[in-house]
Amino acid sequence: MVGLRDMVKNARWLFLFFILERVDVQDKAKAAFLVQYTTILMERVEYSVYTKASPELAWKTFSNWHVWPLFSDIYEDIRWVQGQPWKPGSRLEIKLVRPVRMTVDHVIIACSPAEHIAWIDHAMGNSMEQWVVFDALSAGGTRVRTWAEFTGMTPVLAGRPLRDCIRDFITGWYEKFAKACDRQVDGEGEP
Prior knowledge:
9 strands; about 35% strand; globular
């Protein structure tokens, strides 16, 4: 019978091989060291915002990656590198300047415009799955819900827990996004 210790050891190996394609590891000794000192913890962050915008207008704003720098100052470059934008299997490369310089590989896994979008991100030995759902409200407007689950080998980023960095980014980004949607509804122009 396989014990818990063996199951954790096997899970660590599977996890390591899943993310090694994003990590520069040259030999088995380094890989073994990483497995020994890597703890697998799946963390989750959830957040919701409300906007006066319809789901269609909220989607139009969300899907325009050219305006994302209005929602956060962390972007250096955002570009599609494979496939048609927002189609499952397409890839978006996002270069960030803070809290540290990094490139995020953003792979779309599901998309139904104005309903939901989901992707998997890889960066710095971490993997994250994120979903965004656009819920039409009966009184008008939209609730935009997002959740992200992440795990990896970088539990601390720029001296802060990764969970806090992700939570703060999501909170700030979606608040600014909702305000941009509201401005459009109020006739104040594009975001």
